[in-house]
Write a structure and sequence with these properties.
Blueprint lengths: L2 E7 H4 L9 E5 L3 H4 L6 E10 L2 E11 L2 E4 L7 E5 L1 E10 L5 H8 L8 E2 L3 H13 L4 H6 L7 H11 L4 H12 L6 H15 L34 H10 L12 H4 L9 E4 L15 E4 L1 H14 L6 H8 L1
Parallel strand pairs: 1-3
Antiparallel strand pairs: 1-8, 2-6, 3-4, 4-7, 5-6, 9-10
């Protein structure tokens, strides 16, 4: 999809940019050039002087589906589209670093309706759209398959309850510069989001365009670094705790006979093993079921607790 910029100069026009339905913008450019906007994205900016400084706002994005001449002024051409989105309130873009680059390439918006050739600027505009309270029509306009890897990652991070700044940081730390297929990218992202356990009470938008199925099962080779564990300590702790979660009592007697060759339990380190090499005592361990084990680590991150003891878990869940 191609992307274009359109500019409404409040100082020159004497009026603020106003919403129109259907979406439209007029120009004196050649009809042959404006026809290129059909099926593309047109990002509408406004600008006005405030306190001696020029302020720029992102007002709307729309998708032209027709062009026509003004019936009275034949030199005016309208581009019009039924689908689009108005940013409410308009987004003040002066604070974004990419805006200066956009202004330079667009000669401070003096070129009229003009194509955007900068991929990063397009990504940032798309991110603003996805994080805005957009209509279901616009959401379905940009399916996953048409998004860049950066925009795809930020979309799902924001759906997961992260802020735009957190999503961008995760992209820079985990995915920037990696050559991944879309299925690999999403798989790694969902694993990260699951481990981070970032779910919250934030109401998350529902994207109509988000796919309902994903490719899985592909064989890939990975290198990983793991910390050593002492199997003798694990077995001893399980025996002392009689193969039972010390928090919730799992597994119940009724299903113990179903599992004979493996355990359904974890042995938890009170001082997380990620802290580094140490001499571990039996008293430093406790048997937990997988759910309680994940819960104690999640609560530890939330409350910034260093020692994840059984007493800490019971105190927080009582």
């Amino acid at each position: 999809m191609r992307h274009f910029v359109a500019y409404h100069n409040v100082d020159k026009m004497g009026v603020e940019f106003k919403d129109h339905k259907p979406f439209q913008f007029r120009s004196r450019k050649r009809e042959s050039y404006l026809s290129k906007t059909i099926g593309s994205s047109v990002w509408v900016f406004s600008g006005k002087t405030d306190g001696g400084k020029k302020m720029y706002y992102l007002e709307a994005v729309f998708y032209p589906d027709k062009i026509y001449s003004d019936s009275e002024k034949q030199d005016l051409i309208y581009i019009e589209g039924a689908k689009g989105h108005y940013f409410e309130p308009p987004v003040n873009v002066n604070r974004f670093s990419w805006v200066m680059r956009l202004l330079k390439k667009q000669s401070n918006f003096s070129l009229g309706i003009n194509e955007i050739q900068d991929d990063e600027v397009i990504d940032q505009l798309s991110l603003l759209l996805n994080t805005s309270s957009v209509s279901q029509t616009v959401k379905s306009k940009v399916p996953d398959e048409d998004l860049s890897p950066y925009n795809l990652v930020t979309r799902y991070c924001i759906l997961h309850g992260m802020t735009m700044e957190e999503a961008a940081e995760l992209w820079n730390n985990q995915f920037k510069g990696r050559d991944l297929s879309q299925s690999q990218l999403l798989n790694d992202l969902f694993n990260l989001l699951s481990r981070e356990d970032r779910t919250s009470n934030i109401e998350k938008p529902e994207y109509v365009s988000i796919r309902k199925s994903f490719a899985e099962g592909e064989l890939i080779q990975k290198e990983c670094t793991r910390r050593t564990r002492n199997p003798g300590l694990v077995d001893a702790r399980l025996r002392i705790d009689r193969w039972k979660c010390q928090s919730c009592g799992f597994p119940p007697v009724s299903i113990k006979h179903l599992v004979t060759d493996e355990t359904l339990l974890d042995v938890h380190h009170v001082d997380p093993l990620a802290d580094g090499k140490r001499e571990t005592k039996l008293d430093d361990l406790v048997t937990l079921c997988p759910n309680c084990h994940r819960l104690i680590h999640t609560l530890g991150r939330i409350h910034k607790e260093d020692r994840l003891t059984l007493e800490f878990l019971k105190r927080k869940t009582s």
